[in-house]
């Protein structure tokens, strides 16, 4: 079995002078993800490489799954690291590796040797030829195919010799913490957890704000949002979740404004409150799960009117995705099953039968004038009574 993984990362490598910062983030993010895996691991950098080495027994599948959640990794290669004890030993190690890894030896292969250490007594070409020959002798069913091999056997001569032939896909993206922090408007729906995951994939850490409307929305609806935050936190790390009691604001809008404008006005107040928390904690933008045309409040006109209240950038990673594309991602990150649990969210209670689809900003502002008397006080109370929950990966 493998005692180590060679971690491949791509985009980071182009970051020039900042490269080491990105690598260090990646190393600590890997260590963090592995904390919950059975086993002890040492994560280290070595000449533009990252190695994860297990100290003794460990759970291979769990370790791979954890590494596959780390943003910034493009490939995970289970690797055998051996001391240089001469060519005979190397050939034996490669043959043992093939013996253990491939029960069926009917495959084509190519040996790809590289010397990072030029004082090794054979050239890469010589290693390729000599090891290739040994493999053919040991396993006569195998064949060489230098153009499209089914198995590529990598042998890298570094301080240790690296032998590997498998590369499992990583998440891609950028290491968490290499960008800033953003405030996710997290509902119990399908889209916003996906939006949080997607923005986080670019290295952005998250806070979140959820608006609930007790007693119109239940404790279980809130718990569902906490559960979704836990799932997103498996990728994004700990999420500070603000739970805002939005009931009085919603009732006030309901009482004072035309009902076909309720959703849009309500969304403007959500954005304002989320932005308040965002600025308070140094977030550089807001994130929503909106997608053009999905519902009345997500036409381009509606998005423009909602956007107008914000001074921070609003990031909408799902903006151009079809629902099915979003569902596919939700399934991949395991939020879908939770998202479709049938608990009401606060928007569904107060929705009009025929909401405006092309709101006019001036009309909306005129309607909002009806709120002047009490809205500031209600917003202040909502902010002051907000419950903060620290959500860790489950
Ligand atoms: P989702 O599946 O993310 O709930 P949706 O398709 O139901 O999205 P809307 O209800 O119009 O769409 O919400 C659009 C976006 O506004 C959501 O993606 C989310 O970012 C934010 N949002 C909506 N309701 C809430 C809420 N109760 N608390 C926090 N954010 C919300
Ligand atoms: Mg929703």
Produce a short descriptive summary:
40% of the residues lie in helices and 20% in strands. With 394 residues, the chain is of the alpha/beta class. The longest helix has 19 residues, at 262-280.
What descriptors fit this protein?
40% helix, alpha/beta, 14 helices, binds adenosine-5'-triphosphate, binds magnesium ion, elongated, 6-stranded mixed sheet, 394 residues
How does the SSE layout of this entry go?
Elements: E1 4-8, H1 19-34, E2 41-46, E3 49-54, H2 60-67, E4 75-82, H3 87-101, E5 108-115, H4 124-138, E6 143-144, E7 151-157, E8 161-164, E9 168-169, E10 181-185, H5 191-200, E11 205-212, H6 219-236, E12 239-245, H7 247-256, H8 262-280, E13 286-287, H9 300-307, E14 314-315, H10 323-332, H11 336-339, H12 346-349, H13 361-369, H14 375-384, E15 387-391
Parallel strand pairs: 5-6, 5-7, 10-11, 10-13, 11-12, 13-14
Antiparallel strand pairs: 1-3, 1-4, 2-3, 4-8, 4-9, 7-8, 12-15
Helix pairs in contact: 5-6, 7-8, 8-9
Distance between the termini: 28 Å
- Strand tally: 15
Report the mean per-residue pLDDT as an integer: 94
Helicity range of the residues?
25-40%
How would you describe the overall organization of this protein?
- With 394 residues, this protein is of the alpha/beta class.
- 40% of the residues lie in helices and 20% in strands.
- The chain contains 14 helices and 15 strands.
- The radius of gyration is 27 Å and the shape is elongated.
- The model has no long low-confidence stretch (mean pLDDT 94).
- Adenosine-5'-triphosphate is lined by residues 185-187, 189-192, 209-211, 270, 288-290, 294-295, 297-298, 345-347.
- The site of adenosine-5'-triphosphate has 21 residues, from helix 5, strand 11 and helix 12.
């Amino acid at each position: 079995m493998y005692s180590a993984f060679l971690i491949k990362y791509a985009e980071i490598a182009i970051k020039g002078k900042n490269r080491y910062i990105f690598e260090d983030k990646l190393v600590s993010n890997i260590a963090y993800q592995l904390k919950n895996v059975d086993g002890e691991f040492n994560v280290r950098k070595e000449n533009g490489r990252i190695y994860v080495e297990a100290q003794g027994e460990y759970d291979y599948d769990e370790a791979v799954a954890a590494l596959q959640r780390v943003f910034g990794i493009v490939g995970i290669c289970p690797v055998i690291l051996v001391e240089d004890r001469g060519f005979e030993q190397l050939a034996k190690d490669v043959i043992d590796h093939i013996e253990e890894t491939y029960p069926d030896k009917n495959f084509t292969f190519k040996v790809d040797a590289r010397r990072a250490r030029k004082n090794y007594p054979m050239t890469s070409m010589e290693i390729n030829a000599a090891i290739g020959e040994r493999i053919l002798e040991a396993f006569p069913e195998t064949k060489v195919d230098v153009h499209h091999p089914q198995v590529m056997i990598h042998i890298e001569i570094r301080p240790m010799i690296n032998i590997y032939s498998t590369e499992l896909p990583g998440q891609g993206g950028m290491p968490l913490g290499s960008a800033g922090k953003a405030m996710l408007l997290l509902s119990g729906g399908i889209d916003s957890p996906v939006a949080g995951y997607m923005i986080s994939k670019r290295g952005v850490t998250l806070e979140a704000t959820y608006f609930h409307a007790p007693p119109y929305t239940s404790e279980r609806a809130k718990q569902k949002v906490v559960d979704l935050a836990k799932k997103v936190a498996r990728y994004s790390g700990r999420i500070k979740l603000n739970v805002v009691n939005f009931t009085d604001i919603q009732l006030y809008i309901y009482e004072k404004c035309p009902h076909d404008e309720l959703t849009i006005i309500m969304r403007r107040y959500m954005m304002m409150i989320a932005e308040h928390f965002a600025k308070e904690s140094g977030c550089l933008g807001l994130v929503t799960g909106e997608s053009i045309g999905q519902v009345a409040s997500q036409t381009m006109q509606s998005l423009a009117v909602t956007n107008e209240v914000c001074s921070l950038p609003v990031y909408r990673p799902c903006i151009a995705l079809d629902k099915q594309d979003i569902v596919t991602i939700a399934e991949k990150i395991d939020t879908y099953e939770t998202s479709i649990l049938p608990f009401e969210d606060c928007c569904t209670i107060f929705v009009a039968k025929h909401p405006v689809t092309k709101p006019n900003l001036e009309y909306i502002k005129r309607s909002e004038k009806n709120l002047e008397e009490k809205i500031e006080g209600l917003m202040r109370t909502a902010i002051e009574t907000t419950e903060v929950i620290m959500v860790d990966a489950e």
